[in-house]
Amino acid sequence: MPSSTMQMFAFILAVLGVVSATVATLLPNWKVSADVGSNIMTAISQMQGLWMDCTWYSTGVFSCSLKYSVLALPAYLQTARTTMVLSCMMATMGLCLAALGLKCTRWGGSYRSKGHTAISAGACFVIAGVLCLVPASWFTNEVITTFMDSKVPKSSKYEPGAAVYVAFVSAGFLLAAGVIFCLSCPGRRGGPLDSGSSHPDKPKPQKPSQEQPNRDQPKQQHCEQQSQTEPPEREESHREKLHQDKLQADNRQQEKSNLEKDKQYLSPSRTRNPDAKAVYSLHDYV
Questions:
Q1: Pairing of the two strands 158-160 and 62-66
Q2: d(Cα 13, Cα 107) in Å, to the nearest integer?
Q3: Measured between alpha carbons, how far apart are the two ends of the chain, in Å?
Q4: Is pTM beyond 0.70 here?
Q5: CA–CA distance, 94 with 63 (Å, rounded to integer)
Q6: DSSP result, 126-171
Q7: With contact defined as beta carbons under 8 Å apart, do 118 and 98 qualify?
Q8: How many whole angstroms separate alpha carbon 157 and alpha carbon 32?
Q9: Paired strand residues for 33
Q10: Which pLDDT tens digits describe the chain residue by residue (286 residues)?
């Protein structure tokens, strides 16, 4: 999957492609008059575009006339108009989606949703690049075919202008950006981050597990079933064992209480009564 740097590079290429495609669509020099034969020192230069025809006179006057009639245009020119406009629209839509699908942005949803948005933007760029490449190639083919035709007079021959080369460059930019964005597949990493987190590196908050109570329930049910199925002999032995344990606990408690009494009796604050026999001396016995 491409990194954030590669996505930014692809986004810059897409911006350049959109600008280039728009400029190529509006430029009037898709084909220019060729200076061949005796017309090398011609005083007039003619240019034809998708929307207008321009003439540059030797006096420095530059005049253009719009092509109002659509049906009067040849098929390749009508196709070039339509496809170039669609290419600009698809590229603009791809830019909007790419801004949401970039990793470095904080809008666009979770990691997986940002990946899907980036893939959609890449698809738009690829379609826009193809739509820009088709009219440029067809237009160039028509101009070269007419130029190589010997029946066409030399004064009516044209050659590809700068707008055609700009269209080719913009198609390359859009295709490259589209391929990079199409590689933005979310993969396995997008699984734990589908909680709507706006940042791809922000972990998903974990919910408290409720599996432990569910695990204890089968054990309790098993114990209850086992207690219900025990025979009466086992119940009696169990009761006797509990009674013996209770007696042992009482004996231990009594022993502890006796030890405490002895300790209180032997404490320094309380002294024992002296033994009566110890008071008599040996002389008294004699």
A1: unpaired
A2: 21
A3: 115
A4: no
A5: 36
A6: HHHHHHHHHHHHHHHHHHHHHHH-TTS-GGG-EEE-HHHHHHHHHH
A7: yes
A8: 9
A9: 158
A10: 567 788 899 999 999 999 999 999 999 889 888 765 554 445 578 888 888 888 887 777 888 888 887 788 888 888 899 999 999 999 999 999 988 888 877 775 677 788 888 899 999 999 999 999 999 999 899 888 888 887 877 777 888 888 999 999 999 999 999 999 888 765 544 444 444 444 444 444 555 444 444 555 555 555 555 555 545 556 667 677 777 787 788 778 877 777 776 665 554 544 455 544 544 444 544 4
Q: Are 29 and 161 in contact (CB under 8 A)?
A: yes
Distance CA 249, CA 152 (A): 122
Which of helix, strand or coil describes residue 43? coil
What is the enclosing helix (H) or strand (E) of 47?
Answer: strand 44-48
Task: Give the chain's length.
Answer: 286
β-strand partners of 63:
55
